[in-house]
Amino acid sequence: MITAVASGKGGTGKTTVAASLATVWDGPVLGVDLDVEEPNLHLFLQPVIQGSQMAHMMVPAVEEAKCTYCGACSELCQFKAISVFNQVILTFPEMCHGCGGCMAICPEKAISSGQRELGEISWGRAGDVGFLAGKLRIGEAMSPPLMRMVKTRLDVMLAAEGGDAIIDAPPGVSCPAVNAVLDSDVILLVTEPTPFGVYDFILACEAFAPLGKPMGAVINRAGLGNDAIYRFCREKGLPILAEIPYDRAIAEAYARGRIIADLSAGLKSTFVALRDRIRDLTKPSQPQKAAHA
Amino acid sequence: MNRIAVTSEGPSVNDQVDPRFGRAAGFVVVDLETMDTNYIDNGQSQVMAQGAGIQAAELVARAGVNCLLTGYVGPKAFQALTAAGIKVVQNLEGLTVGAAVERFKSGQVEMAQAANRTGR
After folding, report:
1. What CATH number does the domain containing A71 carry?
2. What would the pLDDT profile of A82-116 be if each residue is shown by its tens digit?
């Protein structure tokens, strides 16, 4: 089972929840940092890194001697990564999404596969918790290609070792956020009861609901703000799976890189209960007995 | 230099020079011999998430111009325009298209050697 910990608004506590959930998981589990633009799950899990590899994406490399400047590649490319001007062909590797279309369409077979470095994938262990993370190269504009490669490695690791995974997703509702939750079995939306938290939470619900996955809310900093988030969840029938209190001690522990489930018996039981509710959410619902009149 | 393109907020020489190249509303193409003009809409580039400058360069190259008058050009667009053999005059924002063309004809302009905007 893959649980994606997502949010609309950033800084609501995705990593806090993901790290705590991983440590209370009842079985083999992998903590996966898919927030590749600013990964920070490692700060809390503090894994021993056992391996890493650089990730690359294929981009067009043109053998200009073979090019007839017919423009087929340029017309096909939706991202302007390859462009023909009279007798000159230009490539913009940083614009390329790696689809390979230009290579396939070139009638002269003049385009081969070059490489653009996307970033680094690393893996290791933090006690009982497995660890996997992607880190985007500074200057790289697109995170989904690297995220997909991290997810491919996740599939390999899950196939080899079994167990579950908890994904620390990037914030927002754009391509990176959707990519992070796309292959999950259940989506946790972490939010806070502030106006910003509520606003972005609603956006996230709207973005992820069409995926048709079980979703639940975790309300962090409960006690702050107002009750709008509770009303929204009630109206939409979205279960609130856990509440984490607005508490200075939690903020201090977070700032020291501690896992908050370790702070107190109360917080630990909050995350244990969250884990059990996530499992319940993914159980196939029992067929309702028909009500006979 | 007989055909030039000017980034424009509208279709006529009385419209303002659009300071942007890649995301300009359109291009007024002027034949310097006859002073005939025609307009190329750039709406297609305006809606692109990325690559607007490259697409705009393709558009003006297809129009067969030798020179572009505009406000500012990013690095990829500049590279593309150079590849297409199009000279670039920058920093003409604040003028009408007609005034920019007159300034160009009077020779009081400088051909750009590099992009004057950084890319994203």
Report:
1. 3.30.70.20
2. 999 888 999 999 999 999 999 999 999 999 999 99
Structural domain for A110, as ranges: 57-117
Could you tell me the residue range of the domain that residue B61 belongs to?
A: 3-100
Q: From residue B73, how far is each of A78, A227, B47, B62 by CA, in Å?
A: 21, 49, 17, 18
Give chain B's mean pLDDT.
93
Whether A133 and A36 map to the same domain: the answer is yes
A50 plus A62 within the same structural domain: no
Tens of pLDDT along A116-141? 999 999 999 999 999 999 999 999 98
Which residues, other chains included, contact A189 with Cβ-Cβ below 8 Å and sequence gap of 6+?
A: A6, A7, A8, A201, A204, A205, A208, A215, A216, A217, A218, A238
- Interface membership of B6 toward A (CB under 8 Å): no
Closest in A79, A86, A141 to B84, CB measured: A86
CB–CB contact B61 A85 (8 Å): yes
Domain contains A33: yes
pLDDT for the residue numbered B119: 59
Q: Which of A117, A133, A154 is the last residue of a domain?
A: A117
Q: Chain A residues within 8 A (CB-CB) of chain B?
A: 74, 79-81, 83, 85-86, 88, 90, 92, 95, 141
What pLDDT, on a 0 to 100 scale, did the predictor assign at position A16? 96
The yes-or-no verdict on residue A223 having pLDDT over 70 is yes
Q: Quick check: is A78 in a domain? A: yes
Q: What is the ipTM of this complex?
A: 0.83
Q: Is the pTM of this model over 0.90?
A: no
